[in-house]
Amino acid sequence: MAADDRSEGAGQGLLDRPEPTEPAALLATGLGKRYGSVVALDGVGLSVRPGELVGLVGANGAGKSTLVKIACGLVRPTSGTATIYGHPAGSREARQKLGYLAELFRFPGWCTASEVLALHQRLAGSPGGTSERAELLELVDLSDVANRRVEGMSKGMQQRLGIAQALVGEPKLLLLDEPTSALDPAGRRAIRGLLLQLRERGIAVLLNSHLLGEVERVCDRVVILARGRVAADGRPNELTHAGGVEIQTGDGVRRFPQASREDVPRIVGELVARGVDIYEVTVVRSTLEDAYLEAVDRS
Amino acid sequence: MTATLIIARHVLQESVRRRVFVVVLVLTLAFLGLFTLATVEAFKAQTPFGGGGTFSPHAITAVTLFGLGVFSALFLATVLAVFLTLGAVRGDAERGLLQPLVVRPLGRREFLLGRFVGAGAVCIGYIVILYAVVVLIVHQAGGRWPDHVFGPGLALAGAITILVALSLLGSVFMSATANGIAMFMLYGAGLVAGLLASIGAALGVHSVQTIAHDIAIALPFEGLYQAALHALGSNQTGLTQVLVNLGPFGSSHPNSVAFDVWAAFYLAVVALLATVGFERRDL
């Protein structure tokens, strides 16, 4: 059943937990950014709680990357504020708490995977040393190529190294801009598993992705940006809605658009009583993609 | 280790790994081979001249060869400086190399300082060693030392430091290609100013000298280079001095404390502009 396929942990209770007392991992208030006459962000308000995994989706040019870049201090907002665990975005204190994977990034081709991590350990002041590097490379399945130069790695391997780099120094907030764009299905699945592990460890994650299915599967909450504004914000199952019941019979597929899950036994009973052969029953639920398109159309 | 030193070390490591030093060493050895050959032949070809007095062909040859060595050292070091720094900020940001580094707790100021220290150390070391080797070659071939041995070396170190800083400043605002072109044009403008000054002095044209002086003020690396050339033969007098100054490596621009202070102030202003520009730049 499509909607119930979000079995990897989405929405599993984080929003049901009591409100945390520590400051938000990321809090954006009235955030605006203009590039000349182009408005990239127009009064965006957003929060990510400690340990929360939030998906950020939107069309190209919706302002997703700008928002992430403001959060990590690469871009200065035109208006509004952003804080990381209470510290102004871009400040040294804020940067000490975050890990960042840019959408378009590159590591020096002459560095080995291990050297890239060692450089970032030194810059982050991480005392993890060799054991942290080994653990991170293991986490992204790059242990075998620890001493291979970046220029000899595939795009997918570099992407995984980027994720390991973002995790150097045990950040409390992870800002990931399209982290799976260069990965194959197996790599994406591994990263999804990694994101869930991070959430278990209390690390807040803001995941910026075009892959709605991926966001729907792992995120506690989804924020949809459209034209620089928040068009929708909620748990995946709040943003989607019921779409009826479909039953595959010997005569073909029969649709019951107004029916819900509770109606299934009755409908099936009636059909069987009439001698109809039943092969499959599907409770239809709109997808995040539907919710996304609706939100974008509304805005 | 501070963030500045981490970045400086990274720059040095990159130079080693990318075999920058190997290429530079090979080409420098080729240059030194040719320079040695030219120096030996120049002293051999010198004909005795019975003029006596203040005219010494041997001194003219030696000072001119020292000048050629200083010119070459600055040129080669400038190439090195520009290629080490031309894409340090905007170029690296466009390639996605910079962002993962500057989101770390180090400040942008420290990052820029690290790039400056790394590239500066390479270029200063290079130019000082090359100058010393050139001086030794001329001494071995002709038995002469420059009139001032250490002054020109220090002036060259100052000149290349300013060029590194200017290239880093350019990298904040311009793409790597545009910055590289701009830097070589600035360097060329400095050379033209030096030639103008020599021509102005030889012909006694005050306006040309003024223009050259103004350019040397605006581009202090050129003033320091001229000061280095001047110090090589500053004790020469009479006809020897006139002929040296008329040559391609003559200079009528002696060093002064005031100019050194100006060069240091200029360097500070360039560093400030680069830092402020980088701090304000969206990446």
Please characterize this protein's 3D structure.
- The complex is a heterodimer of chains A (299) and B (283).
- Chain A is built from ten helices and 13 strands.
- Chain A is α/β, with parallel strands linked by helices and 299 residues long.
- In chain A, the strands form three sheets. Chain A has a six-stranded mixed β-sheet with strand order 6-7-8-3-9-10, with helices on both faces.
- In chain A, β11 and β12 form a beta hairpin.
- In chain A, α3 packs across α4.
- The longest helix of chain A is centred in the middle third of the chain and has 16 residues.
- In chain A, 42% of the residues are buried.
- The radius of gyration of chain B is 20 Å and the shape is globular.
- The two termini of chain B are 26 Å apart.
- In chain B, α2 runs parallel beside α6, α7 packs across α8 and α8 runs antiparallel to α9.
- The longest helix of chain B is centred in the middle third of the chain and has 35 residues.
- In chain B, 80% of the residues lie in helices and 0% in strands.
User: Strand percentage of chain B, roughly?
Assistant: under 5%
Mean pLDDT of chain B: 89
Largest interface: A-B, 28 and 22 residues
Count, helices of chain B:
12
Which percent bin holds the helix content of chain B? over 70%
The quaternary organization reads as heterodimer
Count of beta strands of chain B: 0
User: Strand fraction band of chain A?
Assistant: 25-35%
Structural class of chain A: alpha/beta
Poorly predicted runs of 5 or more residues of chain B:
none
Order of helices and strands of chain A: EEEHEEHEHHHEHEHEEHEEHEH
What's the main sheet of chain A like?
A: 6 strands, mixed
Order of helices and strands of chain B: HHHHHHHHHHHH
Low-confidence regions of chain A: 1-16
Q: Give the strand tally of chain A.
A: 13
**The biggest beta sheet of chain B, please?**
none
Coarse shape of chain B: globular
Q: What best-fitting shape of chain A do the alpha-carbon axes yield?
A: globular
